[in-house]
Amino acid sequence: MNSVFLEKRNNILGKEFYTNNSGKCFVLDYKGCNSILVAFYDPFCIVECAYGQLKDGRVSNPILPNVVNKGYLGVGSYNSVTHERLYYIWRSMLDRVYNDKRHLKQPTYRDVEVCKEWLCFQNFAKWCETQEFFDAKDDKGNHYEIDKDLLIKGNKQYSPDACCFVPKIVNSLLLNAKKSRGIYPIGVSYQKSSKKFSASFSNGGNQKHLGVFVTPEEAFQAYKEAKELFVIEKAEDWRDKIEDRVYQALLNYSISIDD
């Protein structure tokens, strides 16, 4: 080692630097201007960087939860620029689950969580790329969407075992509009004029009227039978374009009066 290198190394070892978004770090080792090992205090993590990045504060702690105070980038090859779509899906998932402002419009997500493994972007991205239909698109050219409710009814956690990628039309089959439909069962509305109960469901953008009934229970039963049959029809339409476990879940999908 020459004297200039040793002088630079001795001057920087142990020195603390402030970063733009990850607090303080200190230098553990100096191998050259483009290879400096720094350690973050909390949470503890070792990162390699260049001196220019360190001087300007452009070094980040990859395990600091800075996405909705829950998610973190992690150590690995996936990043928000090269893997923009993966990052968007991951960040949107975390935002739905942990952003309190979002819960004002989507209160059903208040009781949902993301599994510990997926709080790390690296783990989530790796899982996505193992899914057969992650890159699939529907007949309108739209990418499939991540779904957490179909495989496990009533599921409250985004996790590898519960989630899958499905076309938007399949994803929309599971929406129950609980917030907006009022006090009556899913698919049921009250008609003031007749003092009876109407049953209807959306069959791909259009409302299909199923009739008028004396009780909400009768109206719900009509809805249940028609909607479950429609779900089966859609399962057959998409059979070759979805996972077999998704297809089977659609065939077995059952609607309860308290959904």
The percent range for helix content is 25-40%
Number of helices: 8
Q: How many E strands?
A: 11
Rg on CA atoms, Å = 26 Å
Share in β-strands: 15-25%
Largest beta sheet: what is the strand line-up? 1-2-3-4
Q: Give the overall average pLDDT.
A: 93
The end-to-end distance, rounded to whole angstroms, is 71 Å
Largest sheet: 4 strands, antiparallel
Q: Write down the overall geometry.
A: elongated
Helix/sheet category: alpha+beta
Which oligomeric form is depicted? Answer: single chain
Elements, N to C (H/E):
HEEEEHHHEHEEEHEEEHH
Fold and architecture overview:
This protein is α+β, with helices and mostly antiparallel strands and 259 residues long. It has 8 helices and 11 strands. It has helices spanning 3-12, 51-56, 84-98, 100-103, 121-130, 168-172, 216-237, 244-251, and strands spanning 16-18, 24-32, 35-40, 45-49, 113-114, 145-147, 157-158, 164-166, 188-191, 196-202, 207-213. A 4-stranded antiparallel beta sheet has the order 1-2-3-4. A hairpin with a 4-residue loop joins β9 and β10. α7 (216-237) runs antiparallel to α8. The longest helix is centred in the C-terminal third of the chain and has 22 residues, at 216-237. It is elongated and about 95 Å long. The model has no long low-confidence stretch (mean pLDDT 93).
